[in-house]
Amino acid sequence: MTVLNRQRQLAVDSRRLREVAGAALDLMGLGSAELTVLLVADQRMRDLNRVYRGKDRPTDVLAFPQMEGAARRHTTRDAALPDVLLGDVVIGVQTAERQARERGIPLPQELDLLLVHGLLHLLGFDHTGARAEALRMRRKERGILRALLKSKDLSGTL
Fold first, then answer.
1. Which of 3, 74, 140, 149 is deepest in the core (most CB within 10 A)?
2. Of 95, 136, 114, 125, the residue nearest 20 (C-alpha)
């Protein structure tokens, strides 16, 4: 697990995010999976969003899965694959900070949400298509976040 902070506009506790990501992966039965979390500024996120999604604006989170086809679908059914390379989650920290302010929550809490959201995208969950799939993703996201809050190892972190 790697967390790379490539932005300097806002202070972010990379160690804490690494712990949250590790705990979330453990909860999903993917504790030995490889993951990279990249924290970027709005301009870099805008560039990535334009290149990979055709949208010329910054966004909060992008996910770049390494698994394809059957392996990815297999993992989305909560049947863990050992030592799998999941991919990359890229978080736009400035956008996350604005969203946190709008929602009245601390930035670390917003980063947790975006990290879990990105992880679920890596596993094949989607919220842009069928309503049922969006609800399934939302339920999974909430369940993981609740479990993280209850985790003894993270209680002082979250």
1. 3
2. 114
For 5-36, how does the pLDDT look when each residue is reduced to its tens digit (9 = 90+)? 999 999 999 999 999 999 999 998 888 899 99
Measured between alpha carbons, how far is 110 from 99 in angstroms, rounded to an integer? 8
How far, CA to CA in Å, does 63 sit from each of 35, 88, 92, 136, 150? 11, 6, 12, 18, 26
Q: Which long-range contacts (CB under 8 A, 24 or more apart) does 71-75 make?
A: 72/123, 72/124, 73/124, 75/30, 75/123, 75/124
Residue type, 73: R
What DSSP assignment string belongs to 71-86? HHHHHHTT---TT-EE
Q: Which two tokens stand for residue 26?
A: 């453990």
| Spatial distance between the Cα atoms of 91 and 79, rounded to a whole number of angstroms | 26
H or E element that contains 157: none
In the structure encoding, which two tokens stand for residue 122, read together? Answer: 């890596």
Region of residue 5 (left: phi > 0; alpha: psi -120 to 50; beta: else): beta
Provide the token pair at 87: 């991919």
**pLDDT per residue as tens digits for the range 73-92:** 435 444 545 578 899 999 99
End-to-end, the C-alpha distance of the chain in Å comes to 19
